[in-house]
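Figure 6 in text form: structure in, sequence out.
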């Protein structure tokens, strides 16, 4: 993971209901899974569809929102 963590901007794209439980564990910081241990040095954007985001706390995202660098 060190090489992958040394990035200015990490982008995680995870569509589908099958990803929801694992994404929830990662968001909670579950270090028993690789994504739960991942800490990029720069920005980190998660791009999820509603099914993948379903298990995440509703206060951690805005449905239909997106981030854009200017």
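Output sequence:
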């Amino acid at each position: 993971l060190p090489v992958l963590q040394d990035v200015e901007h990490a982008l995680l794209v995870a569509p589908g209901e099958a990803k929801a439980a694992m994404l929830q564990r990662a968001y909670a910081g579950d270090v028993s899974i690789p994504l739960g241990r991942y800490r990029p040095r720069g920005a980190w954007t998660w791009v999820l569809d509603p099914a993948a985001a379903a298990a995440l706390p509703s206060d951690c995202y805005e449905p239909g929102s997106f981030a854009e660098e200017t």
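Caption detail: Helices lie at 2-5, 20-27, 34-37, 50-53.
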